[in-house]
Design a protein that fits this description.
The chain is an alpha+beta fold. The protein contains 11 helices and 14 strands. It folds into 2 domains: 206 residues, no CATH class; 144 residues, v583 domain like (v583 fold, Alpha-Beta Complex), CATH 3.90.1700.10.
């Protein structure tokens, strides 16, 4: 902690005091009653120009507007945006984190993660919208993605909500997963197995099938947990610790603890890493998604050394320090609940570093192909 200021260390101590618990599954409008009417939530900082939205984001906005009954087509959705009849706001401004291009509306079922030590502190993330290749978070606007979102709204979401009968401590699950091959962002298989065990085997068939196929269901819970932990450090004068972070496909935005209401933005960079077969020449969108909060906490790209399968595929694409404890140089200190004390948490951009980035899926930029690969989006420097 010697490279971080006393104020920044105070934010870090608030972060490690958080005890995240999975407490509830419900519709967004129930979990965030302050959400304004006819408002949809997107990842990352605000858009500078609503007439210049990335194609994957337009596709996802259209799908959620259709779910809510607010538009029947992209052209109608854009008309409503321009007129102000439809609002598009950053999810993190409402305590919500959403993956990649996924757009959250009031009817969408979400998970809620609460701090056991300060129950008024919560973060929310939508239920994971299912497996490849047509999930709406991938931005290709496929009808099958909207069909699954409708089933998540009725009946799957309500079934899972009823099945979550007790609050679930999440730090032991995260620690277990790091010890069993997850980085908690690009690889979440160990977390997924632990989270699946929360729900009874006797779930209704459609909900059980969804959990078995949505192999990144746990990711959205990790996102909410990460956002809750880093957000706890907010409101400390002169602290440099990041308390929010996300990309919107154009800009990367973050907030610091000393000024937690203000977005700081930089042009986002596309992930660097292996592309899928047949997608070698496809163009990747610059960093998109609020899952960047995971990496701002200290998991994801900084934990590639904990996930051999990902590390091997990334090795020829990113800085070699990503595969060593040096990846945690920009982070403030260890977390007492984690077995591996070389994993540090709390991002302080004033600390010296050789590498820093976000482990992300590559979303194809024209909104047609969906996911085209995986990699690390380099942190945008000044």
């Amino acid at each position: 902690m010697s490279h971080s200021s006393a104020a920044t260390q105070k934010s870090y101590k608030k972060l490690i005091a958080v005890v995240p618990m999975l407490t509830r599954i419900a519709r967004l409008k129930e979990l965030v009653p302050s959400l304004p009417d006819r408002t949809l939530l997107h990842a990352g900082p605000p858009f500078a120009d609503l007439s210049d939205l990335p194609a994957p984001m337009r596709n996802a906005i259209t799908a959620t507007a259709q779910l809510e009954g607010w538009a029947e087509s992209e052209s109608e959705m854009l008309t409503h945006l321009r007129s102000g009849q439809l609002q598009l706001r950053p999810a993190q401004d409402f305590g919500v984190v959403t993956p990649l291009a996924f757009i959250v509306g009031p009817s969408v079922f979400c998970v809620e993660v609460t701090d056991r030590t300060s129950p008024q502190n919560k973060r929310v993330s939508p239920l994971n919208d299912g497996p490849l290749p047509y999930a709406l978070r991938l931005g290709n606007g496929h009808p099958d993605g909207l069909a699954l979102l409708r089933r998540l709204t009725d009946p799957i979401g309500a079934t899972l909500a009823a099945a979550l009968t007790d609050a679930v401590p999440l730090l032991p699950i995260l620690d277990y997963a790091l010890r069993h091959g997850d980085d908690l962002h690009g690889q979440v298989a160990a977390t997924q197995a632990q989270i699946r065990d929360i729900f009874p085997e006797s779930l209704e068939d459609e909900a059980a099938s969804y959990l078995d196929k949505a192999n990144q269901f746990a990711l959205n819970i990790i996102m909410a947990s990460s956002a809750l932990m880093i957000g706890a450090g907010a409101g400390v004068a002169e602290s440099n610790m990041l308390v929010a972070c996300g990309g919107n496909g154009q800009n990367m935005g973050y907030k610091v603890a000393s000024d937690p209401e203000a977005w700081i933005t930089r042009p986002a960079l596309p992930p660097i890493g292996p592309k899928f077969n047949g997608q070698e020449f496809a163009s990747a969108l610059p960093a998109i998604g609020d899952s960047a909060v995971i990496d701002a906490l200290g998991f994801g790209a900084a934990c590639l050394r904990t996930t051999p399968s990902l590390a091997e595929s990334y090795r020829d694409h990113v800085h070699p320090d990503y595969f060593t404890p040096a990846a945690h140089a920009p982070f403030i200190g260890p977390h007492p609940a984690l077995s591996d004390q070389s994993v540090h948490v709390g991002l302080d951009l004033t600390r010296p570093r050789t590498c820093l980035g976000i482990n992300l899926g590559m979303v194809e930029s024209t909104g047609k192909a969906g996911l085209i690969g995986r990699g690390v989006s380099p942190w945008p420097e000044d």
